[in-house]
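Technical appendix A lists one of the benchmark inputs used to test multi-chain prediction within the project. The record comprises two sequence entries:
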Amino acid sequence: MLAIDSAGLVATSFRTLPPLDVVRAESVGEALQELRRAKRPAILAGGTDLPARFNVGDYPDIIIDIAKIKQLHAVFIDKSELVIGAAVTHQSGSTHALLPAVIPGFQEAWKKIANMRIRMSGTLGGNIMSRRTRYEGAILLAALNAQLEFATLSGPLFMAAGDLWDAELPVASLLQSIRIPIATKPRLDYERSLRPIFTQAFYVDDTGAGRLVSATEFVRPHIWAFDRNSQSNPSPEEIDFQDPVTGTAYLNQVRAVFFMRQMTRLGLS
Amino acid sequence: MIPMEIDFILNGRAVTGKVSGNLLLADYLREHLDLKGAKIGCSRGACGSCTVLVNNIPIAACSYFAFQLDGKSVLTIEGLERDTTLHDLQQAFIEHAAFQCGYCTSGMILVLKAMLDHEPNPSRDTVVEWISSNICRCTGYAQIIAAAEAIIAMRANTGPTEAVS
C-alpha cells in the first residue's frame, strides 16, 4: 500500500498542488515585505477564488495568508466615503448595518452575489482582484465610482475600480480597502435576472449624475456616465459588446429594457 | 517546504497535526484522518459535496487548505451523531427520502445545520437560498426541502433538540 505523508510530495490526486510555502501575515507591512520577496505569490483571504487559479495551472510558490490582518475586515465611514476592508466577506459586508442608510440598493445588490457558502468566506477584495469578468464585484464597484486603496512599499496607491482591468500594479501591493463616495447620496439598482448572459448596475445620485455599468460573463463591464441635468431623457448609446456567445443586437436590446426598468425603480421616470 | 503544526478541534475533540502548505482539507480529512464523509465532486468549490463546517461556517473542503484549520473548529458529517444516535437532520433525511445516490447528502446536511444555527426559524426561501450552495443531481431538491421544513416545524414545537432517540 502506498504510504501518503503530509509532505505533499506524493500526489494523492489531481487536486494536489506542487509544494508551496505559507506565510501568515499579521500586518499589511509584513504582507508587503513577503510580496516583495516572492516570485509567484498568491494572496489568501477567503480563498474561494484560488481553486479557479489552480485549475488553469496558475500555481503559486508561496501563499500569503492575510486573513488575520484586522484592519482589512473593517467597514466604516471616513468623512464622505464608505470604506470596506478588502477582506470583508460578502455576507458580513452586505449585512452590515451601515449600508442601507448610506447607499440605498447596495445591500440588495451585494446580497445577490454568489451562493451562501461562497458568501460566508469569499471577500469583496478577492472578487475584484481576480479580474474575472464573470464576477460581479467589479460591476457594482464601477457603478458606485469606488476607489481602490492599495498599500505599497512607497505609500498608498489609489485607483478607480473601473481602471483595475489593465492596471499594472507594483509587485508589492495589497488591496487594503474599497472606498465609495457617499456625499452626494448615491442610490443603486442592480439587475441580474439574465445573468450570466447580461447584468447591469445603475447608479444615480442627488446631483443628477449617473453611471450605467453593463456586463456579460465574457466581456469587461462597460461604463456609461450621464448627467441627468443635461440629459432630461437619457438613453444609452449602443455598445459593440463583442461577446463571444451572445449577439450584440440582443444585448443592446436587453440593455435598453433593463435601463428603463432601473430608471423606474429609482424613481427617474 | 516545512510542515506546519496546527491545533484544531475536530468533531469536538482537540487535535494536533502536521500538514504541508499545499495539503487541501478534503485530502487531509479523507486520506490522513480517514474521514470519508466529505465527498469530492467538482474539486473547485462549486458543487458543495465536500462541505464541512469550519467555525460553524460551511466550507468546501476541496478549496480550503488544511493549515487554515489552525485554531479553529471543524465539524464533519461523522461528528453529527451522538452515541450512535443520529442528528435530527440525518433522521429527517431518512424519513423524507432526501437522498438517492447519497453523494451530496453529507454536504447538504451540514449546510442545513449551518443554516439552522444561523437562522433557527428560516423561511422556505431561506432554505432554498442555503441549499443552492450545493448540487444534487438525484432528488430535484424537493425531498431535501421537505426534510428541512420538517426539522424547522419540529424544533418550533420542541425546541432545538438535535438528537433523536
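Residues 4 and 19 of chain B are 5 Å apart (CA to CA). Chain B touches chain A through 38 residues (CB under 8 Å). Comparable benchmark entries are summarised in Table A2.
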